Request: fold
Amino acid sequence: MLDSLREAGKSIGRELNRAWESLSDGWRELLSRCSNALVHFERSGNGNDDQFPRWSLMNAEVEETPAELVVRLEMPGVGKESFSIRIVGNTLFIRGEKRWLRESEGSTYHLVERAYGTFERTIVLPKNVDSEKSQASYVDGILSVRLPKAVSETVRNIPVE
Reply:
């Protein structure tokens, strides 16, 4: 009987170690790949703000083709009129607001994981782009920003006097 308890304890220990390793791997990947996707949402100040998270993931990808960079962000629930997109140097700034709309009065929420409010996501681009020819579209909750590459990058040597 004592031997079977020891074996059960070892088995439980192995399973706990595997579960911990899996959880640790997930957190490491989240931190290494997605830490910039964690975005702070500023609250509007209405009475319902305390039930919503202040932080949420805003997943993005940057694709490079021979002619352009294409930035795509998952932003469901944001009206396209809410977006403000700005390029400064090789940094893309995307601001917006995700508004909370209550669908039925008198209801009770038991789970709230979506953040609401104003946000800004900053993405450093791997190349300089021609901001004058850039375009943005918003379809099915995906914001796509097409950024043609700059013809030449400005490089200047500055002599030390």
About this structure: The chain has a mean pLDDT of 84.
